[in-house]
Amino acid sequence: MTDKLTGAAGREYVAEAIRHALRSGDLVPGQRLVENDLAESYGTTRGAVREALQDLAAEEILEIVPRRGARVRAVSVEEAVQITECRSVLEQLCARKAAVRATAEQRAELERIGVDMRRAVADGAWDTYSGLNQRLHELVIEASGQEVARRQLERLNGPMVRFQFRLALRPGRPSQSLPQHLAIIDAVVGGDAPAAARAAEAHLDDVIEQLRSSAAAVPAPAPRA
């Protein structure tokens, strides 16, 4: 019998596994999470699972219901739009600062990400593109040196995991977002702070538009007779 993951390692492993399950669609809003089942599935102790669930509840990804345990929190489209509006302000700040503060190594990595993103779209490698997208946003935030913004963005991004997954899978979405991401890269690498902020704003404005259009595409429930 192999040893079970415990402590901080088990806690972090379970939390990331649940985030991945949300991104992949294996978990859905309202779904109940049972500690025993999670511990068995992930090879951890119940204590590690319990702590991970509490962490995810603090991030507003899950909600803890008294006497019923944890379940995936449902996020409305309107809440997702409001979260993205807040993200936009912070990401504009980070892009502006990254254009000034990024190191030569960070600028070189941004350029490589741009090349790899183009290739991923050309090859239809959507999982690869999604990973590069995530790394791009992380790197801009890292390069900005804005630690307060980073912490706030981590909190804001938590409830958006499932929405980000669904948007990424929309037909044509990677081709649509690629020029937006390349504009951010070009501005940061070129040291143009105002352009970097504008590019970040344009990208998040488009995300908001996509969220609203996805809500409009859902048929309204039929009226009761």
Automatic annotation (TrEMBL):
UniProt keyword annotations, A-Z: DNA-binding, Transcription, Transcription regulation
Gene3D superfamilies: GntR ligand-binding domain-like, Winged helix-like DNA-binding domain superfamily/Winged helix DNA-binding domain
Classification of source organism: Bacteria, Bacillati, Actinomycetota, Actinomycetes, Kitasatosporales
Organism per entry: Streptomyces prasinus
The name this protein goes by in its record: GntR family transcriptional regulator
Domain HTH gntR-type as annotated: residue spans: 8-75
PANTHER family for the chain: TRANSCRIPTIONAL REGULATOR, GNTR FAMILY, UXU OPERON TRANSCRIPTIONAL REGULATOR
InterPro entries, per the entry: GntR_C (IPR011711), TF_FadR/GntR_C (IPR008920), Tscrpt_reg_HTH_GntR (IPR000524), WH-like_DNA-bd_sf (IPR036388), WH_DNA-bd_sf (IPR036390)
